[in-house]
Amino acid sequence: MSVGDWLITMLIMIIPIANLVMLFIWGFGNPDPRRNYARATLIWMAISIVLTILLYAIIIFFVFSATSGMN
Prior knowledge:
Blueprint: H1 3-13, H2 16-28, H3 35-68
Helix pairs in contact: 2-3
């Protein structure tokens, strides 16, 4: 892939819904030079979502435990 192709790829990655759709197309569609990049990006997105959910769950737990202790 040329530098121009990578610039277009990066441009697509900053468009909110299009990036997710294109990552699935590149990662699981026809063979594409961006296949490994797309799969790695999807894995990092999944890890980030799981860690964010865990962080919010921990914060909510501590907030509720702190407020219930005030009664």
